[in-house]
Each structure stands twice: as structure tokens, then as C-alpha cells.
């Protein structure tokens, strides 16, 4: 824990200040070699993962505008999370991770749970305690659903492993569901990724099954 806190402080001091996808480090301390701490702004909106979970309902019904009735019943069906907002989150996450890589930092634990939202629902990437700075070893690795299969004897993160985790995070942003959220067995997820079998985006693309039903990914709590 102490090594991770020191690592995160080093990374915040290493990165140029002011990037919009990261919180500013307000203060830090490392006293007597026995304890350390870091202070970051508090964002009450919480994590992107929580926001996706709490707003996973596809549509809400609101009174139709004067411009027309979308349903014929005096109401309009509006997405809780608009496609534009999902696209914004995707672009902002890519921007933030690209900034880290540009400055020699591998995040090593990319996922929506490690992203905070501000009052405008803008993305702020957090939890760099286990990230890899330069030639240092990683102090953590990705969660199972975001982990690119590799030799477990060398878990140091790379640009490639970060991009894999970023891709799985974009899947969650687009669908609202965790990658293979319906699978509990960690080994099964690992084996599927190793066989290059990935969660389907068919429902997002509007693909229908043999019975003509729109295929949908499992919900966040499936």
C-alpha cells in the first residue's frame, strides 16, 4: 500500500498539470518512510461504472414536444444515456489514456470503475497507484474482464495491454454491460479472450436473431 501511494504521487508529479481528463493533485505527504497520502478533489457524481449501472434503463418516457409525438400517445421515448454522451465518454477516455502513454505511463487497470464523472459528466481517469512509470514494474494488473491474456509470470503492463482494457471499457460504455458480465468463472473469461472470442456488439448494431428479435447484451446485473 505504501509503495502504491508513493508511486501514484510520483506519477502525478511526473505528468504535466492541467490535463482535463485528470484530477489535480491538491497535496501529498510522505513522512518518516512509514506512511504517505495524496489528496484529490471529491467528485460526488461517482464512477462511470456506477452511473452506467444506475441508468441502465434504455428509455424514459417524457411529454412529447410541440414538434411531434414520437409514440402517438402524447409522450416521447428518450434514452437515459444518449448516444452522444456515450461517444463523448469514449473520446475522453481515449484522450486521457493517450496522454498517459505520451508521457511514459501505463495505467495497468483501465475500467469504468476507475473513472470519475464531474458535474458536466466529463471523464476523469483515476487510480494510478499501480500504474507503470517508465521502466518501473507495474504494481497491479487489470481486472479479469479487462485483462488481455498473457504470461502471468510477467504482468507488467504495456501500451498493448492498456489498449485491450480500453477496448473492453468502450464496450461497457456503449452497451452499459460489463464484458461477459453474465459469466462468473474467471477462467472462462480468460479462455474466451485467449481464443479471441469477445463479447458481441450485435445488439448495438441492431442485429436480430432467427426469430426476428433484437439481440441485446445482458444487463449490468445479469
UniProtKB/TrEMBL annotation:
InterPro entries noted in UniProt: Kinase-like_dom_sf (IPR011009), Prot_kinase_dom (IPR000719), Ser/Thr_kinase_AS (IPR008271), Ser_Thr_protein_kinase (IPR050167)
Q: Which organism is it from?
A: Sporothrix curviconia
Q: Where is the signal peptide?
A: none
Phylogenetic placement of the source organism: Eukaryota, Fungi, Dikarya, Ascomycota, Pezizomycotina
Q: One Pfam family from the UniProt entry?
A: Pkinase
Q: What is this protein called?
A: Protein kinase domain-containing protein
Domain Protein kinase per the UniProt entry, residue ranges: 1-222
